[in-house]
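Appendix B, example 12.
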Amino acid sequence: MKLIFCPLEKIKFNEEVMDLYLQLHKKLQSIYGISRLSASKFCSIFQFGDVGNKKILELGCGSNNSKDCFLGSRTFEPWLLRALHEHRTNPIGIDIGGLEDELFEGYSIDLSKERALDLFQDNSFDIVCAYSFFDAPSVNFCGTSKSTFNKLIPQLERITKSEGYFLLDATGLNLNQNDY
């Protein structure tokens, strides 16, 4: 597994992928009435080529009942996985909140617990991403995000293929690439 620190502000926007993003963003808006699909999160997944045959897992994907008191409701819903599903991939999402009624495979799991990812087989995923997970209030409460990260790394090494990628926005972790 290659751990890639992926600051979202540095993502390169390929024209073909951006066209796909705009199509899917528009489609999500028509289905849900609103979409907060991040172009940088979406485009970052495609930096490794076509994702059609890749198995993708998002940690802290957002849930149906996630709310943000500043930005309003629907902010932390699983927009990335909805778009990947609309693109005919089979993404899997994990969030502590509910994922019922989603069209993609989803699990309500507390990732701060030991062995939280035991339900997945070894070498299962091509891409695992955690963009907003480690700076989420429920994870970063009292500075526990680095502890959660340290618990997850051995599990991620087990479930991610050796040639696979773990994409991480480490903003909430106070880490840099030299730490790991």
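The chain has one domain: 2-6+51-179. The CA atoms of residues 49 and 118 lie 28 Å apart.
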